Amino acid sequence: MQTPQEKKDHYHKIRMERKKVQIDAAIARANTEKGLLLVITGNGKGKSTSAFGMVARALGHGKKVGVCQFIKSRTDTGEEAFFNAQPNCEWHVLGDGFTWETQNRAQDIATSERGWAVATKMLTDPSFDLVVLDELTYLLSYDYLDKDVVLNAISERPEMQHVVVTGRSAIAELREMADTVSEIKDEKHAYKSGIKAQKGIDY
Ligand code: ATP
Ligand code: MG
């Protein structure tokens, strides 16, 4: 006669055995390797920092990484100071400030095109294992860049190159092309209770 605890342990073991069979089969099926397109979008905090987490992972494996930061113009961020000091990481701040700061569409378009030229170099260079296009989504949703040109460059990139795109409101075509899409939901943000951007957390 089993005690209730023994019964519980017994059923747990059976459940875990079944789970292991399913998980092992799924791992065996997932056997292709290729460069991924990841889109990290949504209104919540954590899009760029997620991308920078992947930069750290890739560098830790000795891979070469390129980062293009669109929109933003600040060059005093902790991430830039840290990653720019890594020999395998090429970091470019290519923005001119937010649209509501510049208030000048023609200027935003010219800045976007200059930035895109830098990104294009990375997207045609197979020595880059990972390319991060931080805040690229805005350049597409505001039509600062030709959508077809951008999507083509991403899809024609070297076969093994991973690309991460971040920013709010990713356009449908980009989501469709992507292998992984994460929509980060805004449940709460300290900023809304009047707390200013914190060094080491927000920049
Ligand atoms: P992070 O760089 O912190 O991962 P993010 O890339 O998800 O943020 P962005 O839209 O690029 O978000 O935000 C840039 C700045 O705005 C960061 O300082 C971030 O903390 C802040 N922020 C992000 N989400 C929100 C939000 N929902 N409300 C207010 N501020 C936000
Ligand atoms: Mg961001």
Overall shape: it is globular
Rg result:
21 Å
Largest sheet: 6 strands, parallel
CATH structural class of the largest domain:
Alpha Beta
Strand order of the largest sheet: 3-2-4-5-1-6
* Count of discrete alpha- or pi-helical segments spanning 4 or more residues: 8
- SSE order in H/E notation? HEHEHEHHEHHEHE
Kindly report how far apart the N and C termini lie. Answer: 61 Å
Helix-residue proportion: 40-55%
CATH homologous superfamily name of the largest domain?
P-loop containing nucleotide triphosphate hydrolases
Instruction: Kindly name the structural category.
Output: alpha/beta
Task: Summarize the SSE layout with pairings.
Layout: H1 4-29, E1 37-41, H2 47-60, E2 65-69, H3 78-84, E3 89-93, H4 99-102, H5 105-123, E4 130-134, H6 136-141, H7 147-155, E5 162-166, H8 172-177, E6 180-183
This protein binds adenosine-5'-triphosphate and magnesium ion (MG).
The site of adenosine-5'-triphosphate (ATP) has 16 residues, from helix 2.
Task: Outline the structure in words.
This protein is α/β, with parallel strands linked by helices and 203 residues long. It folds into 2 domains: 1-31; 33-185, 3-Layer(aba) Sandwich (Rossmann fold), CATH 3.40.50.300. Helices cover 45% and strands 14% of the residues. The protein is built from 8 helices and 6 strands; from the N terminus they run H-E-H-E-H-E-H-H-E-H-H-E-H-E. It has a 6-stranded parallel β-sheet, sandwiched between helices. It is globular, with a radius of gyration of 21 Å. 30% of the residues are buried. Bound molecules: adenosine-5'-triphosphate and magnesium ion. Residues 47-48, 134-135, 166 line the site of magnesium ion.
